[in-house]
Each structure stands twice: as structure tokens, then as C-alpha cells.
């Protein structure tokens, strides 16, 4: 018998050595490839076309991914299911191309653009409108336009659609997954503590549908957002209003007139300028820019390659004594501790603010927020650091992106000025506590728990029923935190607590609605926030510096190693098109709905989080 185990161990040990050696030689090959690669520099073709082809969701800050994990996951086809594109990269490429004589036109290829925040889409359209002043044409083409893609495409001089394609305005909707019945079947008992009748973040765990208050809040919010969306599109193009009315009779009348041909309906109602096949569009672009004989298509460069070509290998050092406006990006759920980019850590984000204020050249700080909130404790740690910056005489501007709600508003409240876009989702001033009790669930499978304590003040054990005093303590802690939230907003916004409570209770607002209620000072975008910060600091000439977490020497080495394009060619790329796997997507959606629970780590189990707000990406 012992010989069998020895034989099995030899197999396991041998396999282990093979895998370790394989990984070692792959890393070695990547390192050598990166050292000896002599890639030709990217060239911008004369009279070429800049292709704007963002592939993913537009974000303020890319989520940090370990470079080794990223390299192998992409090579094996298991990369991020939702790729990310910096909205600043898209806008910058358009702005640079406007005055670049080598760029003769702009082509919008939006087929792979994921749904993104309206304010981020607006940032792109504003850049496109400015680009049009150069006299260079903007051309857009697609097989099918989703409404978020059409929002950008509507700003093209020539808007084409495949004869078999279509454009549909479905409006905005919100879907919440509910788990009450599932938890009952699993015998998991949720303990919920909240303040505010509109604070619906805990509803998925205690209901199977929306409460009347949540439905009212959602309908009000999304109606406002849809009005902004529709107004932007109809102002840009003279679209027949029956296609954007949202009424099925209007839509079906247009559909019937086109004999069920969605492409013809789009053309007849001025959604597009012409119906053209891919070949027809390609030939038109070749006639416009010329033929790239090597690639057998029109002369062009994609926006990401264009940015790479424009940026020098070593950026010029900024003047040490020049005034700075330091930007700190707070994107994602707010959690306790330190986090990488893509999440807001109370400690890590506070450190970025501290680094900014300790820089003697920082004359103002812009906190760019894209967050539905999270840990109340972590939010307060960040707010305290901002207060210290103000005490040091550094003006602070809170700039709201797509979402700045609950804890996202908590960290914004004490800024000298708060600026939001009309479509920002903010407010949600409320607090809740949530704990899951597993006593019945574990008992059902034969697992029990028993404990002793030297005092009557026992710690909370999810394997045991919560005591009455524990529930009382958490409820009072939630109420106290909500009262503190009201007080800090009242003090910061020069309002009474009663007035704040009237518009709080977890209620969510758009940026425009929030300004009317005194929660926001002015409407504007990121650039407006920078200008406002400069005005508060009384400076005219300055550098804008985005404060980022410093990588360790090891992280920096592997980031440069695995981001090398020559290295990335060493492993074959595996296709991971799961578009038809509807069942997997369904499970993925459910998983994403519950993933937020993994990040609930507030030391007091008290959260200011907006579950009804679209999650920032």
C-alpha cells in the first residue's frame, strides 16, 4: 500500500515541478522578449482617419489588476468580462486630432462600447462638437445602434446604418434582484437596521419586490435621466418625436409604415442619413483617406494607438515650483482599509489626499467621485482628511461623475464647492446595518455552535442568534450615524438638520434636482471643476496632477514586463465570446448583485450605501 502512495506522490511532485519550470521559462522568455524587442514606432498616416473604437465601459479610473494575473487571464481567454476604457483617453484623442494636420476625419466605430454613465457619454459628445469646428468630417457606421451608442453617434456629420440593422430607444430601466425567498429556503436570517423610508439598500434581503417608496424614488430619478438623454439626442438631430415618446402606439405606427423594416424606419424618421453596407462604407472611407495597401483598407489609426504615438517615451518632467491642482479619483465602493484603484479604501484614499496636501505646490484639490458609497467609517476617515486640507488653506472641490451617493455624498459634503453633472445620481443620505445569521442554516446540515464569555457583552457570532441588546446597540448606532450624517451635511451646506432630513431619508436625486435642493452648488463637468478649483486658489497658470498610488518596485517591474506588447505575443490568445451563453450571463448578473456583500467590512456594521444607484465602472 505504501508503494502506491509513493507512486502517487511522485506523480504529484513531478507535475508540480513541471508546472513551476514551465512558468519560470515563460516568464524568462517574456523578459528576454521585452529586452530585445525593437518594435517600429507607431506612425500616424498622412490624411488618415482617426478611428474612435472604445471597447468596454467608460470609466474615470481603471480597476487595478495584478499584471501577472492580467497577462495569463487574457492569454487564456478569461480576462475581465467588462473591459474598461478611460473616458479621458477617448476625449484626449479627439482633442489632439482636432488640430493635427495628419488627421483628415474621425470615424466612430461604437459597436463594442458598453453602456456607460450619461455624463461620460456627454464628455465624449462635447469633444466631438468641438472637433466639428475644425471642418473635418465625422462619420459613424454600425450594424445596429444601442441607444447609448447612438447618443454619441448622433453627433456625426454622416450617420450610416446597415440595411439589416436598426435603432431602438427603449428608455432607461432599473432591475433589482431580490433574495428574501432564497434566504428563507437556506434558513439564513437577515438582521436589518435602517433609518429613512427611502433607504432601500436592504430591500433585496427582506422583500421579493420593490417597496412603494423605492418604486417612487426610482421612477422619479429615471424619468429625469431619460428626459436629459432624450433632450440631448433630439436637439442634435431632428428626429421624429414619436420614436422617443416612449409610447408603444407611436412606435408601432412608425414600425408598420416601414413594413416591419427597422432600418427603413430609422431612415424615414431621420435617425440615420443613409443605409449602407460595410463594403460601401469601407469604399467611401478609402476614397476619403486613401488605401492602406498593407492592411487593404482605408488609411487610419485607432484612438489608443494614436495616443501612444503622440506621447513621448519619457514624459517631460513638470516644473517643480509650478502650482498644482491635485486630483484624487474616488471610484467604486467605499470600504474600510487600503484598496487598489477601482475601489475606495478609507485608508488608501485618505493617504492620496494627504499626499496631495503635503505637496507644497498643491494649491487646490479636486476630489473626483464616482461611488455609490459603502462603509460609513471609511467615508468619515476620508472626510476628515479633506477637512485637514481645508484647515491647511487648500480649497477643495468635489466633482461628481455618474454617481456620488450615500457615502459618496458623505465625502463630498464638506468641500468648498460641489459640482455635479445634470445626470449625476447623488443624495441617498441614509444609513443602514446588515448582518446575516446562519444559525438555522447550519443547524439544518448538522452544524451547531456554543460559546462562553467572561462578560455579558458578547461579540456578535453569525452562527448564533443575535441577542436583544446586540440588536438594540446596532439600531441605535445606525440612528446615531444617520444623525451625524444629517449634522455634517447641515453644517457643510448651511442648512438646518430638519431641512436636510426632509430631502434625506435615503432619497436619491439627479444632479439638477440636488442643486435645486441645496445639495450641489453648480452644474458642470470635470473641466469645470478644475477651473473652479483654480478660481478658488486664485491661480491662472498651473499643472493638473492626478495623484495615484505608488507601485512597489516589484509591482512596477512586472507591470512594465507584462504590458510589453512583444511579450504579449508569446502566448496564443483564446477567444472567449460568451455572448450566446445566456444562462451563464444570468448567473453572472446574480453574482454581481451579491458581490457587494463581500466588501461590507465596516467595523461597526454600519453603511451608507446606495443599492439603487447604477454601479460605477
Automatic annotation (TrEMBL):
Show the GO cellular component annotation of the record. Answer: membrane
Q: Where in the cell is it found?
A: Membrane
Q: Spell out the molecular function terms from Gene Ontology.
A: serine-type peptidase activity
Hydrolase listed as a keyword: yes
Per the Swiss-Prot or TrEMBL record, the active site comprises 199 (proton donor/acceptor), 406 (nucleophile)
Q: Which family does it belong to?
A: Belongs to the peptidase S49 family.
NCBIfam families under this entry? SppA_67K (TIGR00705), SppA_dom (TIGR00706)
Q: What is this protein called?
A: Serine protease
Please name the source species. Answer: Idiomarina zobellii
Amino acid at each position: 500500500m505504501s508503494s502506491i502512495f509513493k507512486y502517487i506522490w511522485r506523480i504529484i511532485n513531478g507535475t508540480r515541478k513541471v508546472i513551476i519550470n514551465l512558468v519560470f521559462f515563460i516568464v524568462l522568455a517574456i523578459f528576454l522578449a521585452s529586452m530585445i524587442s525593437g518594435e517600429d514606432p507607431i506612425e500616424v498616416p498622412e490624411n488618415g482617419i482617426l478611428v474612435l473604437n472604445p471597447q468596454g465601459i467608460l470609466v474615470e479610473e481603471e480597476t487595478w489588476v495584478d499584471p501577472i494575473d492580467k497577462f495569463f487571464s487574457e492569454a487564456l481567454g478569461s480576462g475581465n468580462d467588462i473591459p474598461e476604457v478611460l473616458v479621458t483617453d477617448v476625449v484626449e484623442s479627439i482633442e489632439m486630432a482636432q488640430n493635427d494636420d495628419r488627421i483628415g476625419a474621425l470615424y466612430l466605430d461604437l459597436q463594442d462600447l458598453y453602456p456607460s454613465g450619461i455624463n461620460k457619454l456627454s464628455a465624449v459628445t462635447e469633444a466631438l462638437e468641438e472637433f466639428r469646428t475644425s471642418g473635418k468630417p465625422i462619420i459613424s457606421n454600425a450594424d445596429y445602434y444601442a441607444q447609448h451608442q447612438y447618443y454619441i453617434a448622433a453627433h456625426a456629420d454622416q450617420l450610416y446604418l446597415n440595411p439589416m440593422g436598426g435603432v431602438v430607444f427603449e428608455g432607461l430601466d432599473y432591475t433589482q434582484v431580490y433574495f428574501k425567498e432564497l434566504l428563507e429556503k437556506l434558513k439564513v436570517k437577515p438582521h436589518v437596521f435602517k433609518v429613512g423610508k427611502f433607504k432601500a439598500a436592504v430591500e433585496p434581503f427582506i422583500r421579493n419586490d420593490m417597496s412603494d417608496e423605492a418604486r417612487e424614488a426610482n421612477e422619479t430619478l429615471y424619468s429625469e435621466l431619460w428626459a436629459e438623454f432624450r433632450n440631448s439626442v433630439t436637439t442634435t438631430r431632428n428626429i421624429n418625436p414619436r420614436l422617443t415618446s416612449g409610447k408603444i402606439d407611436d412606435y408601432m405606427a412608425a414600425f408598420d409604415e416601414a413594413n416591419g423594416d427597422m432600418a427603413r424606419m430609422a431612415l424615414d424618421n431621420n435617425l440615420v442619413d443613409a443605409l449602407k453596407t460595410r463594403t460601401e462604407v469601407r469604399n467611401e472611407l478609402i476614397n476619403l483617406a486613401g488605401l492602406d495597401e498593407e492592411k487593404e483598407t482605408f488609411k487610419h489609426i485607432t484612438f489608443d494607438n494614436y495616443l501612444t504615438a503622440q506621447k513621448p517615451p519619457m514624459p517631460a518632467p513638470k516644473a517643480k515650483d509650478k502650482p498644482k491642482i491635485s486630483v484624487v479619483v474616488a471610484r467604486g465602493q467605499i470600504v474600510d482599509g487600503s484598496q487598489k484603484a477601482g475601489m475606495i479604501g478609507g485608508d488608501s484614499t485618505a493617504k492620496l489626499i494627504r499626499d496631495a496636501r503635503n505637496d507644497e505646490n498643491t494649491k487646490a484639490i479636486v476630489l473626483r467621485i464616482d461611488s455609490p458609497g459603502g462603509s460609513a467609517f471609511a467615508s468619515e476617515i476620508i472626510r476628515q482628511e479633506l477637512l485637514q486640507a481645508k484647515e491647511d488653506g487648500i480649497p477643495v472641490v468635489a466633482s461628481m461623475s455618474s454617481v456620488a451617493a450615500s457615502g459618496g455624498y458623505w465625502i463630498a459634503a464638506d468641500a468648498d464647492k460641489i459640482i455635479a453633472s445634470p445626470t449625476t445620481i447623488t443624495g441617498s443620505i441614509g444609513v443602514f446595518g446588515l448582518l446575516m445569521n446562519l444559525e438555522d442554516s447550519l443547524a439544518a446540515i448538522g452544524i451547531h455552535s456554543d460559546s462562553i464569555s467572561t462578560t455579558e457583552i458578547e461579540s456578535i457570532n453569525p452562527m448564533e442568534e443575535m441577542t436583544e441588546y446586540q440588536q438594540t446597540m446596532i439600531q441605535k448606532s445606525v440612528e446615531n450615524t444617520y444623525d451625524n450624517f444629517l449634522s455634517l451635511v447641515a453644517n457643510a451646506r448651511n442648512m438646518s438638520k430638519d431641512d436636510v432630513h426632509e430631502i434625506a431619508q435615503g432619497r436619491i436625486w439627479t444632479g439638477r434636482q440636488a442643486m435645486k435642493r441645496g445639495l450641489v452648488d453648480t452644474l458642470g463637468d470635470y473641466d469645470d471643476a478644475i477651473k473652479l478649483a483654480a478660481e478658488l486658489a486664485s491661480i491662472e497658470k498651473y499643472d493638473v496632477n492626478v495623484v495615484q498610488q505608488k507601485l512597489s518596485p516589484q509591482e512596477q517591474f512586472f507591470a512594465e514586463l507584462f504590458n510589453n506588447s512583444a511579450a504579449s505575443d508569446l502566448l496564443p490568445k483564446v477567444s472567449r465570446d460568451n455572448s450566446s451563453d445566456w444562462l451563464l450571463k444570468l448567473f453572472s448578473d446574480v453574482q454581481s448583485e451579491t458581490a457587494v456583500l463581500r466588501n461590507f467590512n465596516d467595523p461597526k456594521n454600519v453603511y451608507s450605501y446606495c443599492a439603487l444607484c447604477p454601479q460605477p465602472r
